[in-house]
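Changelog entry

Holo records now carry the ligand SMILES as an explicit input line rather than a separate metadata file. Below, a converted record for 2-acetamido-2-deoxy-beta-D-glucopyranose, shown in the new format.
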Amino acid sequence: MQLLSSLLFAQLPSLIANLTSPTAASTVTATAPAMATHTFTLPPLPYEYNALEPHISEQIMKLHHDKHHQAYVTNLNAATASQSEAFKNNDVKAEIALQSAIKFHGGGHINHSLFWPSLCPSSSPCSSPSSAPSFVAAIESQYGSLDTFKDAYNKLLMGIQGSGWGWIVKRNGRIEMEVTKDQDPITTGEVVLGVDMWEHAYYLQYWNDKAAYIKGVWEVINWETAEKRWGGKKVGDVRV
Ligand SMILES: *[C@@H]1O[C@H](CO)[C@@H](O)[C@H](O)[C@H]1NC(C)=O
Ligand SMILES: [Fe+2]
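Structure line, unchanged by the conversion:
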């Protein structure tokens, strides 16, 4: 059971990626362990709830992690359990009906699992770009300077309409910035950093001042994590 659930866990990003592709989706249906009970769990925060103060409040972190992320995990577990049932019964209509729930809650679980280790206390060395020598070298060679890179990312984050995420992804050895597209989680390339721009991520502290939230986020970016991910190590990736 343990093995089955970790198998399914490993397949989650591709399961989600394949939801829109009929050919790939049928492959997944054929190979998925039909009766597995998969239990996804909420990863603990890698720091205290108040560790990101004053930039992100304890209240936000508690709600965001314990309520929002937990809800994605709970709903994902419910949807995948129903899906197992549907697989078992060869009920393709039910399987199809569950896809959007799995995509949404699975996407939320993936995104938030990547987000927590993208941040760290501003008093700690991990929040300094000097903790990311090779990533910063790549930034400088591609953008000219760290400031130009930050400006570009700020613009991208500020431009997100409604709820969304801004990602920094390593693809073919290059840095790419990407915003939410059609609810698809990032499934190609490796996420280096991600910033949650949903209102629940900042509203209680920053109200509608997105720019101030983004400024705060820069103070708590985890450059150590970025460096590890840039070097090919997975941090907070649900496939781990
Ligand atoms: C997760 O991130 C992807 C990529 O930005 C986005 O399309 C999707 O809407 C996000 N899902 C949730 C629930 O935040
Ligand atoms: Fe969130």
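Spot-checked after migration. The pocket of fe (ii) ion (ligand 2) is lined by residues 64, 68, 112, 196, 198, 200-201 (CB under 6 Å). Confidence is low (pLDDT under 50) at residues 1-10, 15-35.
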